[in-house]
Amino acid sequence: MKIKSQSLLIITLGILLAFSSCSTPEHHQAGPVRIAISKAVPEKSYKNYIKWLHAVDSTIVCIDMYHLGVDSALKVLETCDGLLLTGGEDVNPDRYGEKFDSTKCDLPNNYRDTLEIALIGKALKIKLPIQGICRGHQPLNVYFGGTLYQDIPTDVGTTVKHRHPPYKPSNHKITISENSLLNDIVGENTGTVNSNHHQAVNQLAPGLKAVAHSDEGLTESIEFIDTNGRAYLLGVQWHPEAMNWDDPLSTNIAKRFILEVKKHRK
What we know:
Layout: E1 10-11, H1 13-22, H2 25-30, E2 34-37, H3 47-54, E3 61-64, H4 70-77, E4 82-85, H5 110-125, E5 130-133, H6 138-143, E6 148-149, H7 152-155, E7 170-176, H8 181-186, E8 190-195, E9 200-201, E10 208-214, E11 219-224, E12 233-236, H9 251-265
Parallel strand pairs: 1-3, 2-3, 2-4, 4-5, 5-12
Antiparallel strand pairs: 6-9, 7-8, 7-10, 10-11, 11-12
């Protein structure tokens, strides 16, 4: 699948503020589907998330939350139909009650941590579908009270290589739990995913369940235990936007997220 570069639509700060200040719920319902992205620019790799979504529906408007400031981002989120949390920097261990260890953890982006935790809270309150990818699924676990491994090679070992130094992706197998949302989405019990991270879910948060694991037992995907009265939520540790889009562990995830976003819109 190829998406022309001109199909990429990232609304800039000025346009966003103008739209959010003049939009009414009726205006929003009449306009295109809007997905908030926790960070979408400037790095080239971030644009893959938008290409991945547009491969399913090229009319979706993707909105970068990162450059808005927390208060403005929360207001703009109210005009959106879904939230995508993207990959990136390490989450500050202070967020889950541990001390920062510079030998294990990269320098965190405290603003991003604050922004994403706030976006998650707001999205849950207004019942927006949430999709987390790589780093993006880690603050979901932290938000609900879970912890992270600061460094997989140090804390867990190297039985499975989740990235090759320095910061090069690798591939490894995962096993997917039966009777899980993820299993329903991809229709598979096993698969091979790309991997480019050195942190991962450690203590699973209350209310969440791990539904995919690597061979050494690390959590590769999380979702709600009880979905009653809650919007869609799925976190995956791999990068579906950077995989072969014909793989069900890639495109099926985008399709389901967009389906849930459109259901919320109705």
